[in-house]
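Notebook, bench 3.
Goal today: get a predicted structure for Radical SAM superfamily enzyme YgiQ, UPF0313 family from Hyphomicrobium facile so we can plan the truncation constructs. The sequence was checked against the plasmid map this morning, with no discrepancies at the termini. Length recorded as 527 residues. Pasting the sequence as submitted so the record is complete.
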Amino acid sequence: MTSLPAERRKILCVFPRYSPSFGTFEYAFPLLDGVSAFMPPQGLLVVAAALPPTWEVRFRDENIESATAEDFAWADAVFVSGMHIQRPQISDICRLAHAHGKTTVLGGPSVSACPEQYPEFDYLHVGELGDATDEVIARLARDPSRPIRQVVLTTRERRDLGDFPIPAYELVPLERYFIGSIQFSSGCPYQCEFCDIPGLYGRTPRLKTPEQIIAELDELLARGTNGAVYFVDDNFIAHRRAVRELLPHLVEWQKRNGYPFYFACEATLNIAKRPEILELMREASFGTVFCGIETPDPDALRAMSKEHNLMVPIIEAIGTLNSYGLEVVSGIILGLDTDKENSGEALLEFIERSNIPMLTINLLQALPRTPLWDRLAREGRLVHDDSRESNVDFKLPYAQVLSTWRDCMARAYEPEAVFARFAYQIRETYPHRIKLPNSPQRLSFRNIRRAVYMLCRIIWEVGVRSDYRAEFWKFARPLLRRGDIENLIAVPLVAHHLIMFSREAVAGRRNASHYSARLLEPAIAAE
């Protein structure tokens, strides 16, 4: 690291608004107490924490509140980060910053994959935290004014994750997020054809220390995080030995603090072969694991270089995870080259057999810096048309693929089907979780007040006003008789979002791919 510059600067960090998506739970927010965003933006918070301590920093997550004219006027420079899906909002922030004469700096996964898509920014930070970050800081310390032409700085020497600071959680209202976020590792050893993670972050997992994770959990707890904390790692078990070393620390932290959190993560399905890891996850109160199942078709999995999903039969692997109290969430892709006329029906049959409550069903989208992008470019099958739901020229007719997606969304998320899958989880998965203590942390006045508020909102909005209230009460009555208030709150929150979002998607008011460039509504930029 370079020596810290003495010059004081004022940095405005702005995280762009997300367009509504299946996995960010917008429809659940009105049922919650003050929640207005899904998850704290981990990457930009780390950057904010890495700035010189003499610099002043303001942070605006536009999913909670927009940056104001006063914010822009105050700043010497504006830092922005985001993903491909946020590109319109990213550009809007740059435009507003320039209207105030401010220098703009863009980093994060989107610009790291496609720097050519952001010609309007003054500085592009390509890659992870490292020597490029030091250079941005040094340049702004010398002169915060806008450069004559765009400067592209690419990280050649990444900062070791063991040297990462605690994200600047103090700059955001953590209590207004649906779940908390934390990162243990970066990178994934697998090379699935459609995934850009190895290209962006490498195949050799890099790690924080257990001590860093414990310090971050202490900070999250002290600053008001409630309920769930999601490990944003690309693959939680990418380095199995390191995970085995981390998990006992999580178990002890939970015991010491009265189990204030339950954890969630993303992992490859072959985690089912690791009972020693699954048992420790159970003891640490992991409740959910996202697995990129992608398709139940073995031929398709082999074609996309995802053979590791076949190490254990998929339904058997899901059952194993359920037996450790882990509810599976799955990513699913339609529009694969191997799809057949009956792929939609096969998927619906798989959903019924697996009883996975939530599956993010997306049309295939080719992302830059992936083997899929390279292959389709060679084959002349990349479609550059922002009015389409996908940039892939499918083997099957486009209209047929889109129709299959809508049919699957409509049938998979019928209220009766959603509640039936959750009822299965309550019977077959949740009883395998450890029994949590009635600790002062879990039974705090704040938590009890929030629970009462959410229960009242659910009963009114779902049990009285919704058109699927009959299905809700069929699900809710047994829980009421048993006094299972926790599931009476948690399940309808998620189910309501799934049902309402899927209806919007089937009606064409939501994109068929989380990565689609098709604009459905004007971007709400900072004001």
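The two ends are 36 Å apart (CA to CA). Residues 522-527 have pLDDT under 50 and may be disordered.
Flagging this for group meeting.
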